[in-house]
């Protein structure tokens, strides 16, 4: 989280002035479903730390789940503490991230003499879509009105996937629909429509699936062959 590094500087200034200060920073951490996520605020000098408390915001309430002091080491306050690993630098690691782990975590660092650094970090979980590309199987007669020639589905993705098509220089249009699932994932379906000219039978078209605002902007391409055009 490079954006948070300025907070170290602020704290350093604060330390040098021996002032009372309260620094708040907000950040976002991305993690891929099933990976180990490290939630880290900033590099702080452990020697300055009097206390670290980790909190989680659930349903508008803030709950402290781990507290650390140099004397006691990390202490569990709720069951949530068993879900995470307290690391030597004061950050936490969540192994095998699930959708339930998504949310706001807060690290409150109290330092000597009287400085408090509060970091609010949103853990955003990324779920890769399961992609299916299928040619339309229902036969279409050669004609001059657009018909469905293929379907691309990006199932249960988070954040939702965007679908685009590549058809060479042939004109096309799409009908897109989204289904939101209870667990926060979204299935996107894109129906490819083209004018059913005989020349498009047997050509390959490519579906391009892209997830943005995620840990990795992964773009996946799948090719499908149009096969449903028939002559009268
Ligand atoms: C994730 O954490 C688990 C448990 O702490 C560990 O066994 C595993 O090796 C870690 N995986 C990676 C990719 O670091
Ligand atoms: C990770 O979590 C999933 C879902 O809870 C579970 O099915 C899987 O076995 C877990 N993997 C590991 C390595 O713990
Ligand atoms: C989310 O819900 C959808 C629809 O029920 C399901 O297909 C998908 O596997 C779920 N994803 C996770 C990560 O639990
Ligand atoms: C279309 O794709 C198929 C399978 O990927 C391939 O075998 C075929 O040669 C491609 N056809 C053209 C015209 O590129």
TrEMBL record:
Keyword Iron annotated: no
UniProt subcellular location: Membrane
Main location as per UniProt: membrane
Domain of life: Eukaryota
GO CC annotation: adherens junction; membrane
UniProt entry tagged with the keyword Protease: no
Record domain Immunoglobulin: where: 26-126
GO BP: heterophilic cell-cell adhesion via plasma membrane cell adhesion molecules; homophilic cell adhesion via plasma membrane adhesion molecules
Signal sequence, start to end: 1-21
InterPro entries per UniProt: CD80_C2-set, Ig-like_dom_sf, Ig-like_fold, Ig_sub, Ig_V-set, Nectin/Nectin-like
Keywords: Cell adhesion, Disulfide bond, Glycoprotein, Membrane, Repeat, Signal, Transmembrane, Transmembrane helix
Family named by the database record: Belongs to the nectin family.
Name of the protein in its database record: Immunoglobulin domain-containing protein
Organism the protein comes from: Eleutherodactylus coqui (Puerto Rican coqui)
């Amino acid at each position: 989280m490079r954006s948070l590094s300025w907070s170290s500087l602020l704290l350093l200034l604060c330390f040098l002035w021996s002032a009372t200060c309260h620094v708040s920073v907000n950040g976002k951490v991305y993690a891929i479903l099933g990976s180990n996520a490290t939630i880290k605020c900033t590099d702080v000098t452990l020697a300055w730390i009097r206390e670290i408390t980790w909190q989680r915001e659930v349903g508008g309430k803030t709950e402290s789940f781990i507290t650390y002091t140099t004397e006691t080491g990390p202490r569990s306050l709720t069951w949530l503490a068993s879900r995470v690993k307290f690391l030597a630098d004061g950050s936490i690691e969540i192994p095998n991230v699930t959708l339930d782990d998504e949310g706001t975590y807060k690290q409150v660092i109290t330092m000597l003499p009287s400085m408090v650094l509060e970091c609010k970090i949103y853990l955003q979980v990324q779920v890769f879509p399961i992609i299916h590309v299928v040619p339309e199987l229902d036969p279409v007669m050669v004609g001059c009105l657009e018909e469905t020639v293929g379907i691309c589905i990006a199932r249960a993705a988070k954040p939702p996937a965007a679908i685009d098509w590549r058809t060479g220089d042939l004109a096309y249009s799409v009908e897109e629909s989204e289904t939101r699932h209870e667990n926060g994932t979204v299935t996107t379906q894109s129906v490819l429509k083209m004018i059913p000219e005989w020349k498009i039978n047997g050509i390959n078209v490519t579906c391009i699936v892209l997830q943005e605002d995620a840990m990795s902007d992964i773009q996946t391409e799948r090719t499908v062959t149009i096969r449903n055009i028939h002559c009268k």
